[in-house]
């Protein structure tokens, strides 16, 4: 993938007479930026939050029942109410040009952070994703996806499909490298998934089937499957070889929110699961989804069966991520919190013990500290850190074992972009 030549703007050759769009329009005013899905149906104001009132005749949604799960540990993280406060000693504050990091004075500082690159874009960046080897970073924005060399910060290429219609916004909402680094999958507002051949710099495949925008993509660890989540409230599992598609449909939509649009998908890390004890699916993997109706759902990727629905968030879920051993799951929500779910009970010797309706998983930690919607979560490969991005323009690092916040990064001037390690 590395190249010594200057980056080029690559387009599909389906309709070369149509030039790629230059520049981007102002984001739509019907919702708060392209990083947020469009509003659900009129049953609930969107996005829910402070200052928004329910429509006439409708009451506020009740707090999620705590009886479903055992009491969770609640982290303390609101040390940074005033990041410029003189109370915070200089040894716990690090500043650079246009950014700062503040470390929690209540815990031992064991992490250091420095700004390596600032990657300029011509439009709003909706999503970012590292390659498996960490050598490249992909970003999605208006009509284009970019790949950067993480060592040099140089843009190596830009992908744009010239056959895409010119009308309306067409933001790239999700990007994902294949495990071998040969392909980049992009999901867009035009409801299509494009698989780009990075070396040949052209479209390899197009997956068409979703009826609304594509918000999230994830490859299986062997690269044979691609999972997509869409605002149409379905998950699709695509075969990378034959282009086959299996649809997972939600039938237990939360009646209060009445919209189960999928905002995030994640496949469990197959190589880290205890395979002898895992569910008896063909590839021993699970798919987790986050939805607008506040529910985290876990599916058997082999059978397509819904195994468990996790309830506890009080607002729409925007991001889910498995821990490296596959036995934990982290979710981020518009309720301004993260939750850590113990799903080790799903790894069982007897598949019949993990059926829909069995509440074997529980929330064991709540992460409190963000002051606005949590839009993205990720877990480091060594399972030491959980990282969250928020509409409060901060990125926070949390100890994955204790739930305590280590530090908060500031420097963004807009909502947190979706990111993954």
From TrEMBL:
Biased composition (Polar residues): 64-77
Biased composition (Pro residues): 35-53
Gene3D superfamilies to which the protein is assigned, alphabetical: YVTN repeat-like/Quinoprotein amine dehydrogenase
Alphabetical keyword list: Repeat, WD repeat
InterPro entries the record matches: WD40/YVTN_repeat-like_dom_sf, WD40_PAC1, WD40_repeat_CS, WD40_repeat_dom_sf, WD40_rpt
WD repeat boundaries on the chain: 172-199, 207-248, 281-309, 310-344, 367-408
Pfam families per the UniProt record, alphabetical: WD40
Region (Disordered): 1-90
Protein's recorded name: Uncharacterized protein
Organism: Rhizopogon vesiculosus
Organism lineage: Eukaryota, Fungi, Dikarya, Basidiomycota, Agaricomycotina
């Amino acid at each position: 993938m590395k190249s010594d030549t200057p980056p080029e703007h690559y387009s599909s050759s389906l309709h070369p007479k149509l030039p790629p769009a230059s520049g981007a329009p102002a984001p739509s005013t019907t919702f708060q930026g392209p990083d947020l899905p469009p509003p659900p149906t009129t049953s609930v104001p969107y996005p829910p939050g402070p200052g928004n009132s329910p429509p006439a005749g409708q009451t506020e949604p009740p707090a999620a029942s705590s009886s479903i799960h055992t009491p969770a540990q609640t982290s303390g993280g609101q040390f940074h109410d005033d990041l410029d406060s003189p109370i915070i000693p200089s040894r716990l504050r690090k500043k650079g040009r246009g950014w700062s990091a503040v470390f929690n004075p209540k815990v031992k500082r064991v992490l250091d952070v420095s700004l390596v690159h600032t990657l300029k874009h011509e439009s709003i960046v909706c999503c970012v994703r590292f390659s498996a080897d960490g050598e490249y970073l992909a970003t999605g924005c208006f009509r284009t996806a970019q790949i950067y060399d993480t060592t040099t910060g140089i843009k190596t290429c830009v992908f744009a499909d010239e056959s895409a219609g010119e009308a309306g916004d067409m933001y790239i909402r999700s990007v994902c490298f294949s495990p071998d680094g040969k392909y980049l999958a992009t999901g867009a507002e035009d409801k299509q998934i494009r698989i780009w051949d990075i070396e040949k710099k052209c479209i390899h495949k197009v997956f068409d089937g979703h009826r609304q925008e594509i918000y999230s993509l994830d490859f299986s660890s062997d690269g044979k499957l691609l999972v997509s989540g869409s605002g149409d409230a379905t998950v699709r599992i695509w075969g990378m070889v034959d282009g086959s598609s299996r649809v997972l449909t939600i039938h237990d939509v939360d009646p209060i929110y009445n919209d189960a649009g999928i905002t995030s998908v994640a496949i469990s890390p197959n190589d880290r699961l205890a395979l002898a004890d895992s569910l008896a699916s063909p590839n021993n993997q699970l798919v987790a989804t986050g939805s607008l109706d506040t529910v985290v759902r876990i599916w058997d990727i082999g059978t397509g069966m819904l195994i468990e629905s996790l309830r506890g968030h009080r607002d729409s879920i925007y991001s889910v991520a498995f821990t490296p051993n596959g036995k934990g799951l982290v979710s981020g929500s518009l309720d301004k919190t993260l939750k850590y779910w113990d799903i080790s009970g799903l790894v069982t010797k007897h598949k019949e013990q993990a059926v829909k309706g069995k509440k074997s998983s529980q929330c064991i930690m709540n992460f409190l500290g963000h002051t606005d919607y949590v839009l993205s979560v990720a877990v480091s490969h060594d399972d030491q850190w959980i990282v969250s991005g928020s509409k409060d323009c901060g990125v926070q690092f949390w100890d994955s074992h204790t739930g305590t916040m280590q530090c908060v990064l500031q420097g963004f001037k807009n909502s947190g972009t979706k990111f993954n390690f």
